[in-house]
UniProtKB/TrEMBL annotation:
Class of this enzyme: transferase
GO biological process: cell adhesion involved in single-species biofilm formation; negative regulation of bacterial-type flagellum-dependent cell motility
Membrane-spanning intervals of the chain: 33-51, 63-85, 105-129, 136-153, 159-179, 191-214, 438-459
PANTHER family, per database record: DIGUANYLATE CYCLASE DGCM-RELATED, REGULATORY COMPONENTS OF SENSORY TRANSDUCTION SYSTEM
Protein's name according to its UniProt entry: diguanylate cyclase
Transmembrane in keyword set: yes
Domain of life: Bacteria
Amino acid sequence: MKAFIARHGDLLLTLLALPCVAAGWWLTPPVEHLLLGLVGMVTLSRLAMNVTRRWRPNRLRPFAIMITAITTLPLMALMASFLLPDSVMNYAQWSLFFDHWPEQAPFYSIRPSILMTVALILLVVLPLFSSRPGEVGPIALAMATMLTAMHLIEQHGFISLHEISLSTPTLLAIVLLLAAEFVTQWPGRRLATVGIALAASMTILLILLVLWHYHNSQNIRDVNQVARTRVDTLSERLGQEISVSDQAMQRFAISWDTAGSPPSSRAWTHRARHLVEHFDYMQTIAYIDQQGPRIRHAYPLQTNQPLLGHHVLSSDDDMALSAALLGDASATGMVNLTNGGRGVIFYQPIHDLDTAAIRGAAGFVIDPARLFATIDDASDSHNFRIRVMQNGTTLYSSNTREALSMLEHCNILRLGQSNFTICAEASYARLFDERSKLPAIVLITGLLFTWMIYLLVYFHHRLRQRHNGVKDANYRLRGEVEKRIALQQEVEWLAQHDELTRVPNRRYFSQWVEKLDVSRTRTIIVIDIDHFKKINDLLGHPTGDRYLQRVAHCLQDIVTCHGGLLARFGGEEFIACLPDLSPERAAEVGEQLRRGVEALNLTRHDGHTIVTISIGLITTRRASDTLPDLIQSADQALYRAKLGGRNRIEMAGILDTST
């Protein structure tokens, strides 16, 4: 079992990662599909390299390298997005690569973290350095494992807005790939060889990851303040705008105190027009006479004609106007206006300087939506969506073409007697711009430095081992002798066996038969594959060789089971010797051979019929019957079987089966 795991464990673990990727595609949200797709590409790349290494390395290696290159390209592009400054390639240019992504998800929301990007790059390039396992394999595997573990720690410390979380299927697939690489490296690895180098480099890598975490967390905190900073800026602008407009409204009211008489309609319209030109969010400016009270003038007159003669600007106003007519500046909350719509009303009293009496009040109807639109900076509006709400109703919302993130911050503002909620939601493009390149540069530089430290310690340890290895020369010499003995045994084996079919050859067969007791019954079987020349000519020699191997293995299993020996006689012919069998039993064995080959279902050149064999056999226990005579008799029986239509058995007759 251990030998099987050591030989095929990496391939099985890599294959198990594919169902995890397929299941994750259905179970995970769309934002994780890019990471999941990259894990799937890495799995296929490693699978191709694994298959190439095991079977046809020369023919399949270019194809496997091509798959690896295709997988590496998007991973390198993603890593470049963390390193390249915005002046070289900005967020809009990076997003172009994902305009046709099936889920239409923003680039920032689907981009894997730098930790997982580097870990996947290490996993995909590791099989390329199988010829130099000590220099690359252990340190790359350790780095990929630690980066994955660090990502799991990070995803519990920050919201998934900035880093894609590893779902269970994705994590399981990555763990299987790491385990497959571990199984690949472990059988030939002595821990003492790389243990010291790994311990030193992993200590440095741990310090590096702590440093990276510090810089990255600082940057994340700064990014998380983007929306707060925007809201605070807008709140400050609003406060300044309200203060300026309040001073303008006071000056407007005071300008009528010295008039000596109630304002005329023409004079009121003239001054109000100048005020509205500077503060276009003032929807209505009205003069309310103390007598009545009555609305005497309103600007603009076209939209406020129905107000003239009314008692109030709003039926919901029962306190603010009264306070103004008593001499105090006042304001309402968000109220329904008499002429339709909603707004906030500010009142300023108008005095008679001669008598100090209250002559009336100036009412200013403020449209909150226009006010908030005024303070919203149009130059930066594409990076944020600004919303202003009052009691759950949205009064103002800016438009942006950029994809919006979930990073939103809100402040409470007071206008008049009502509270308003102003919220800023940052776009993914703004978050991308705010992400610093320093943490990624620190990480990549640190990984290269860690690898250099590993190589330094590793080669130092290797040189010391080689120095100590001089003392073990005798043991190595003994191993060389044993290797030469094994090679000699292999040469001897090749001298007695057919290299293609791996069964004994004619020479070994003759030696084996000569050793048999001639007083015992012997059965010689000559076997020929029907129409084999056409198979070679029409299907090709590689197919013919494969058919020969499968037929030979099938025949050998049956002959060996009955205590005999099968050998390749030449070309498509095989010969077998079965001792101690009666003619009837020998015929049954021949029939087993014929049916066994037929059961292989090897398609012939015509594509309809299957490969069959013809058999000629002879049984004897006469000592005077030599092997060449027996082979000739069996060969003649084989000739009759071919004349009789092939796929059959012919017996040469019983020469002598008596005692």
